[in-house]
């Protein structure tokens, strides 16, 4: 069977209508109520002229309306476009135009004013849906360009019926990457492939994909009453994957407006949270700081797992979390916008990230030939099976990232480097684009960052290459320390790193900053770090 995401969510809503689907800032929405609200949103969008295949940008922070917009759009076979709400005007213009968006859903007054200034350079936008009050600037700009302004509240009077056209597994879901460098790219997923790979076929805790909607419904009825808190913003791929995964299971999603470590920790006790999804150390560090501060004050008994996805998660942060709650299960998901959910890492005693053997993941050389298990060669980690169609509107990058082998097998090759052991286990080394070549030796930034994060005074750190006359490149670190920490010297950092890293991997220079800059989803901003480290 070919799965459509809207069909899957509606199936679960029918199977467990009275179960809580979403808790947002102390508001509970059952599956029946959330589905009804999504139907109203779908009717609102359709009434305003949004139809099959139309692209609609979601310029929104986390909210109930954000969730119902995603669901409402896929119900009418339109395509949601995730938008990083902290982008500059030029970056926003790029997203709106590159995605060919015909409409934008927006909320905050400051976001509405930015959108107003961009309507003149985004000629394909023909409608704006406003959550809350419409800013005067947006109303005036829309009127002057014959752009319709629709109040999101108008959906309250629309029907809750699901009388929509038949959908297809070939319907498109377009996910814009939250890349660490350059402009993001729109990854094109068929709904069926999205269900089978990012959503693990509706069975993330098992080996086999669900075969049909009847199995999805039956599994949702049997799934235990579990609460998952998504700490990341919904514009992030890992958060979207998790949202749909948990809805497919019939679980309860706990969502906050912003990532606030204090509110996340308090929700563990208040909402009975059992699993928290974070994005790497950018969220893990402040979260464990708060967990340590509130230990003895907050009841952590419901919490049994913290999962990281979308960015690497250092051993030191994991160790501190386990120190707060020794029975905590920590999971490090491996995946990307271009590959979906590839499974979970394990971390060995040396801090190496290891991926168990999988039929959907191999190691290839530059010619795309498979590197056999047991080889000492370093190669590219390649995904096979349900992979995206490519990048929207970019055939050149599509051919480079999603090549086809001579036997017709399509691959997703993102630049992740690794080696494969004799039993088929793949050891992750780092992203090739962040590989530093110092005197011919290869250093992966992620490995050095993990060592730095283990220093008790370091709150966050990024590692980048800077030019070096003798070595070509040298390892440089941009570091933020905890308030009140003793002054940190390069010598102290180097001494700390020598316990975990070979000599050539140790930072040769460092810059101390008040705060390490990351994206709102917690990913590293390596362009910023390179500029800082090079000055």
UniProtKB/TrEMBL annotation:
Signal peptide residue numbers: none
GO molecular function: acid-thiol ligase activity
Xref: SUPFAM superfamilies: Acetyl-CoA synthetase-like
Annotated AMP-binding enzyme C-terminal domain residues: 447-523
Alphabetized InterPro entries for the sequence: AMP-bd_C, AMP-bd_C_sf, AMP-binding_CS, AMP-dep_synth/lig_dom, ANL_N_sf, ATP-dep_AMP-bd_enzyme
Domain annotation AMP-dependent synthetase/ligase: ranges: 10-348
NCBIfam families given in the database record: PRK07798.1
PANTHER family xref list: LONG-CHAIN-FATTY-ACID--COA LIGASE (PTHR43767), NONRIBOSOMAL PEPTIDE SYNTHASE PES1 (EUROFUNG)-RELATED (PTHR43767:SF1)
Protein name (Swiss-Prot/TrEMBL): AMP-binding protein
Biological source species: Rhodococcus spelaei
């Amino acid at each position: 069977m070919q799965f459509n995401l809207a069909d899957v969510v509606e199936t679960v809503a029918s199977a467990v209508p009275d179960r809580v689907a979403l808790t947002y800032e102390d508001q509970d929405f059952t599956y029946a109520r959330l589905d009804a609200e999504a139907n109203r949103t779908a009717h609102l969008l359709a009434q305003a002229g949004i139809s099959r295949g139309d692209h609609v940008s979601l310029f929104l922070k986390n909210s109930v309306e954000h969730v119902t917009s995603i669901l409402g759009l896929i119900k009418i076979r339109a395509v949601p476009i995730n938008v990083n709400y902290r982008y500059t005007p030029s970056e926003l213009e790029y997203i709106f135009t590159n995605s060919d968006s015909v409409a934008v859903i927006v909320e905050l007054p400051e976001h509405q004013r930015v959108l107003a200034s961009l309507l003149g350079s985004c000629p394909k936008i023909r409608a704006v849906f406003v959550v809350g009050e419409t800013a005067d600037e947006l109303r005036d700009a829309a009127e002057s360009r014959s752009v319709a302004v629709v109040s999101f509240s108008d959906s309250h009077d629309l029907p809750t019926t699901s009388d929509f056209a038949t959908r297809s597994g070939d319907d498109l879901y377009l996910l814009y990457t939250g890349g660490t460098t350059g402009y993001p790219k729109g990854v094109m997923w068929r709904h069926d492939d999205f269900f089978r790979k990012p959503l693990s076929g509706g069975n993330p805790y098992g080996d086999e994909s669900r075969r049909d909607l009847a199995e999805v419904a039956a599994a949702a009825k049997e799934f235990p009453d579990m609460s998952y808190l998504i700490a990341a913003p919904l514009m992030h791929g890992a958060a979207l994957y998790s949202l749909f995964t948990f809805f497919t299971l019939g679980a309860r999603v706990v969502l906050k407006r912003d990532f606030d470590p204090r509110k996340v920790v308090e929700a563990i006790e208040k909402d009975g949270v059992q699993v928290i999804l974070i994005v790497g150390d950018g969220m893990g560090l402040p979260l464990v700081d708060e967990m340590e501060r509130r230990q003895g004050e907050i009841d952590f008994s419901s919490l049994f797992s913290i999962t990281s996805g979308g960015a690497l998660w250092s051993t030191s942060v994991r160790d501190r979390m386990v120190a707060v709650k020794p029975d905590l299960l920590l999971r490090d998901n491996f995946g990307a916008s271009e590959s979906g959910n590839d499974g979970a890492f394990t971390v060995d005693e040396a801090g190496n990230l290891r991926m168990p053997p999988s039929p959907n993941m191999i190691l290839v050389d530059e010619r795309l030939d498979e590197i056999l298990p047991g080889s000492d060669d370093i190669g590219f980690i390649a995904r096979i099976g349900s992979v995206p169609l490519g990048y929207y509107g970019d055939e050149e990058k599509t051919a480079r990232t999603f090549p086809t082998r001579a036997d017709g097998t399509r691959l997703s090759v993102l630049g992740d480097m690794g080696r494969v052991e004799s039993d088929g286990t793949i050891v992750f080394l780092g992203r090739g684009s962040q590989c530093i070549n110092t005197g011919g030796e290869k250093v992966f930034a992620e490995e050095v960052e993990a060592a730095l994060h283990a220093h008790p005074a370091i709150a966050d750190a990024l590692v980048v290459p800077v030019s070096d006359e003798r070595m070509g490149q040298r390892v440089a670190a941009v570091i933020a320390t905890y308030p009140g920490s003793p002054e940190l010297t390069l010598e102290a950092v180097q001494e700390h790193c020598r316990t975990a890293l070979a000599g050539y991997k140790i930072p040769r220079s460092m810059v101390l900053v008040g705060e390490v800059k990351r994206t709102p989803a917690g990913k590293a901003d390596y362009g910023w770090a390179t500029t800082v480290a090079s000055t």
